[in-house]
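User: My instructor asked us to take a sequence, write out its structure as tokens, and then describe one feature of it. I'm not sure where to start. Here is the sequence I was given:
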Amino acid sequence: MNDGKQAIRTTLFSVVSNLFLAIIKGVAGIFGNSYALIADAIESTADVFSSLLVLFGIRYANRPPDENHPYGHGKAEPLVTFLVVVFLIVSAVIIAYQSIINILTPHELPKSWTLYILGAIIIWKEVSYRLVIRRARNLDSTALKADAWHHRSDAITSIAAFIGISIALYLGEGYEAADDIAALFASGIILYNSYLIFRPALGEVMDEHRYDTLENKIRKIALTVPGIRGTEKCLIRKNGMYYLVDLHALVNPEISVRKGHEIAHNLQDTIIEHNPNVVQVLVHIEPFDPKYNAAIPPQED
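Assistant: Let's start with the prediction itself. The structure tokens for your sequence are:
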């Protein structure tokens, strides 16, 4: 199964999971007199739409290059991540607004059985987070990481709701608002997570260099290729789940153009072979000069 299909299947899992939980939370919140659960339901409903956006973004980002998009469509993924962040922010604001209203409005204590519902939800959402974030890291997908954090933020809001309801039930009359204060606190956590999701996506769109580990690996691999005396510039940009590399390689200045061309192609193939997520390597051949370049043991040309 290729990376795109794995990402799509993971996103479909999120859509179904969030839809199912939104229904459970909404019903439990209404009949259990818990706005923290209703707030959770609002967030899960927003998560359904954001996961659908992620699904669309991943499908579009995995389209092959064409005449108008010679580098592919990968930038669609971080752009969709921005929309996912907007959904998170909107849901956090709605939760905060309604929590404040409920704090100012007298209401009954939540039902004790809502704690069992929340306990099961917390476990499920944390498991979902771990499943999705593992796949997101394996595929190096910004959009999937955002989707994974939806699961984690959902678990956090559920924990806050669990604590708030427990306090309200334990302390009794006069502490009905503990449930709503918990929801208000959870909205702040959602906003913070929104920034954590937004920051790497912005760097990806702006072609910010955030790939030191990959750069070091590419430079080491380059030195194993016959004819390569060293490397200079190594520019990396992320395009969806894949990377594009521009590399300046140093070779013996006395070799022919044909030989330099062969070395460049061998270098491209070797880098891609050792890095499946690197789909394009543009090699610029430069003459090695011991006066200006670091001393590197000569290899067979």
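For the description part of your assignment, you could build on this observation: The longest strand covers residues 230-239. Try explaining in your own words what that tells you about the chain.
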